[in-house]
Amino acid sequence: MYKLLLCLRYLRTRYIALASIVSVMLGVATMIVVNSVMSGFTTEMRNRIHGILADVVVDARSLEGMNDAQWHMEQIRRVAGDQIEGMTPTVAVPAMLSFQYGGQWITRQVQLIGIDPQTQGRVSDFGKYLQHPENRGAMSFQLRRCGYDTRDHQAGPETPERVQMRDAGWPHRRRVARAKAFHEQLIESYEPSSAAEPAGNDSNAALDPFAARRAEPAEFDPATEQHTGVVLGIALAGFRTPEGEDRFLTLPGDDVKLTFPTAGTPPSAISDNFTVVDFYESKMSEYDSSFVFVPIRKLQELRGMIDPGTGIGTVSSIQIKLKPGADAVAVRDRLRAAFPPQLYVVQTWRDKQGPLLAAVQMETAILNVLLFLIIAVAGFGILAIFLMIVVEKTRDIGILKSLGASPGGVMGIFLAYGLSLGLVGSGVGMLIGLLFVRYINEIADLLGWIMGHEVFSPDIYYFYEIPTMVNPITIAWIVCGALAIAVLASVLPALRAALLHPVEALRYE
Fold first, then answer.
1. Could you tell me which residues come within 8 angstroms of residue 386 by beta carbon, excluding any fewer than 6 positions away?
2. Which of 47, 155, 235, 310 could be joined to 289 by an S-S link, Cβ 3.0–4.6 Å?
């Protein structure tokens, strides 16, 4: 009982003990906040990477791809069919995207991906990232009449409204077509009249370069027809302002031009017109600013990837979705043994993004080591405080021992005191850290208001809120580590106090 009473007395009267408590508290709170935020970012990033990449991917090493995707999928099922839930072929090729805005051409480098709309959604979360509800249910490269999301459906109803998306679809396409037709009529009204010239006069055709085009029947009416559909990464179609509002340079219903190489040797450039039918928003800037999706059959036709004799196309890769609980690494190894490595590359989605995931993991580990040093500094403070207490209370220790206190009892006083400091500091730190994580977005808004600029800018991260994830196991390790440091720091002073001889302690008193 006397040990507990002395611990409580020192905790109430020793202001220097408060400094140790605050150090432990700040260290624990900081580690909880940092780990929760890093865990939130890492989880979001992994979900979005896995959302576009299937569990296992079989890629052709050659840019010309692999012939007969159906035969390859049959071989894959023969090797690991019991683990496979679905497969889909894809074609990937670098390309240039061009579209007009305000009378000027905007050109961007993109990764053009040909997909099968019927099977792509079965192997990835591709459909979840589209902006039209019907496309999220059943993907189609046909332009929808209307009904595109005017708010980010992944972020909730409190996000800024995307006003330009209200008329996206056929209403926007018809309005642009009418404006273009009116503009062309306006140009024609200023052209020299050819009524006085006889029909078929070559000199008139030379003077009026538009005559031949007007004489031809209209073969394509943009007000009622569309080109082959294309899905653009949302960052390709616009940008996000510092206030978090999305501005679009092109909308579903607009036409764009794609230029890409053919599959021949040597390859030549080919261009074709496409109609934007939806936007893809994975919230991974690497994907949203570079990926463009078109129907795989159309891309194979344009690139010359279809055998004219058999009608069988060539593909770049085969995406494989595994059944729940299947071991992706084991399936990968089985497929690597079945397909020659000189021609094929078999990887899991983690293998394809290994460097990025490893970098994030290393960053988190380094941050934990650096932040844990804060608690270690608090441990050295506890060590210094206890050594001072032992020196200051030498007479009191001698009196306790002369009254019958055992060395273990004296040692228990200091160990219990160190444990008490650790419990109070880590407990308060855990509470503050969890509260900070709970209200981190409100705190970020307050800091932004005080400093005059946003702490967490949505135009950089493409998140409207700071993602957090509290892991109970991580919190338990942080609290237990803080307690261990506090107790270990009190071991040496406790041993010194326990080894004091009562006669020596009272000799000079």
1. 414, 417, 418, 489, 490, 492, 493, 494
2. 235
